Structures are given as structure tokens and as C-alpha cells.
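Progress report, Aim 2. The chain analyzed during this reporting quarter is listed below.
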Amino acid sequence: MRKPYKKSILLPFIVVSLLMINGCQTGAKNLTTDNLAGQILNTTVSVTFAPDGRLWRLTPTDDAVFVDSSADHGKTYSKPVRVNPVAQRISAWPENPPAIVVGKSGRIHVLYYADEQQKSTTFFSYSDDNGQSFSKPVLISDHADTARHYMNQMLVDKNNKVYMLWHDTRHEQHNSHAAAGSLSLYYTVTDQPNTAQFTNQFISDAVCSCCRTAITLSPEEKPVILVRMIFQDGVRDHALINMTSAGQWSKPQRITNDDWGIEACPEHGPALSIDSQGRSHLTWFTLGDKRQGIFYAHTDDYGKTASAPMPLGDTSRLSGHSDVLAVDNRVVIAWKEFDGNETSIVIKESSDRGTTWSKDKKVLGSTAKSGYPELVSNGKNIFVSWASSDHGHYFMEIKP
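Predicted C-alpha cells for the chain:
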């Protein structure tokens, strides 16, 4: 029997999250690649596959970010290459990870965060020589000295157009209702990052400030966003926003109705994946009056209609922080559970685009501090990436 969450359990997690955001960074150390696995900042690692099948990994440490790669699905890695030439106070935590994406041209794109004029100021860098060196990191916000910005996401389409979007405190001029904890969503786009000035453009206000936004490409190579928003009734539910063929953003289409009213930050963003036939698969967390826990649903029309929410995991084990990935007809979901001693990564999968599902299966575990699971694909197989402070970085294939 599924046991409901107690809303009171959320407060400790919120307090811990806020402490992580404001106090998790330590003083700068010497830049080094020695024992990189032991230097992972807040158990936060980002990975991606290149078009040629090579796995690329981005690892933040106290004062630098490093990129390395693997030709054998994570069994061995190349020598790490430092992205930032000068030591910086790096900022990263599981809800605010750095990003790495490799385009069709082979260009490696990197986003990371460092405390500069504002905390978590975002820097962009790229490599055109297969990761042997990286360009000088540059700011992507044109208000970096006055507005805090974080929780960036990045996409690169088949034409090597780069989309970057983020949460921004530069929101007063757009805020239709001054809900507590709301920010605005901004983005920039370029196909010439070597000469780009990164013009910033507004997408939406009323975005929940500390819940990571999910973004992916549609089959038409247009970005689609799943974001937790704060609606005028104070409820924190989710909406889909998609870019039209004309290059304009649609109005947010509310897709969850959980009735979760809370005057605090959940620090628990959603996940989104779109299959080749255009079905959007999403997972999210809620402690609403209507339902509690993590849930899955899918939609074929960007949220105008959607399947009934399907509960995931064991709520008595604090299930949460899920990710979802669709490849052809296969859909895999991964999430975290905690039994009081060990944190586990649990998966569930479907072979028919989310109609029927397998039983839950534990695939990884750790008794130490750990990050969130990340699902990635090489276009055929699906893998899970996860980091913990006792074992470092895990990377394994999820076999059907």
C-alpha cells in the first residue's frame, strides 16, 4: 500500500537545500586533475553522447570544471581537460547542474556556474578540437552584474543552433503577480557562438525560482519546456511551453493540477522527453491536496490533453528527483528512494510509449551523499548516470 507523504517532511529538505545553495561552496584550491572523482562538487556530474557515440562528461570541482570522454560507455575515460583557465568559485548542486551538449558538427558546448557579480553567474565555453582545448568562458546574461541567474538548460539542434535558457531575477517588469519565490524565464539563441553577443529574451514570468526547468527538442527540432509555475491562486503546478514553427513561444499550457499551495521552494524540478512521434513524456513531484509523490503522464498535444497521472515509487521511502527518457517506443524512468539508511536508484520502463509498464527495479545504491539520476541515450541504448560521495560517478546501461 502506498503511504502518503507528510507535508511536514518537506521543511527539512527545503532548509537543507537553502543551506546548500548559500553555503555549499568551499574556498578555492589549486586546479588539478588528480583524483578528479574525489573532487566532484556536491555529487553533481553531467554527461552527454556525441553523434559519433562517444560519451562526454562535465565535472565541477571547487574552483574548476573539467571535461573528459569515454569510448567504451564509461568504463575508461580520457585525461580531463580544464575548461576555465583561471580559478573561479564554482557553483553547482543537483538541482542546478552544469550542462554539456555536443552538436552535429562535433562542437562541444559547455555551461557552468561560478560566483562572480552574482551567485551562480553562468559562463559558456566551447571546443572545436574534440575537447583538447576550450574557448575563454564568457557570460551569457547581459545583466550579469545586476541580476542573479541560474538553472540553465541548453539544447543544440541539427543545424547547430544553440538554445540556452535560465531562471532570472530580472523579472519585476514582467511579473503579473508578485508571488513569493517567482522569477522569470529568459533565453538566448545563436548559431555562431564564437562571435555571439547572447541577446537575452524573455519567455515567461511566474516561474518557481528553485525548481529546475526541463527542456528538450520536438521532432521538428523546436525547443519544448516543462516548468513549475506559480499560478495566481498560489498553487505551484506545471506548464508546457513550446516554440512554434514561426519561432514564437506559446503561452504556458498548464498540464498538472495537484493543488499544491506552499509558501516555500520545493527544489524539485520536473523531467521531460519527447519521442520520435511527438509524444511528450513527463514526470514531476508534488505534495498537493489532490496527490502526493512523483508521477508520470504523457501528452500528444503539448498539454491540451494528457493521460491520467501514474504514481511512481514508494512514498514511504521519499521517492523523488525522477528523470524520463524516450527512445523510439521505449520509455525509461529513474528516480531516488531512501529507506532510512541507503539511497537507491529505481527504474521503471515501458516498451509501448508509456501505455504499459514494468515493475520497479532497483539498479544502484549508496549510503553516502548522492546526486540525482540522469538518463542519456546514444540513439539506441539508454544509460543512467549518477554520482555519490562514496563511489564517485556511476554510469551503466539500462537493458530492456
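The radius of gyration is 20 Å. The longest strand covers residues 182-190. These observations will guide the mutagenesis work planned for the next reporting period.
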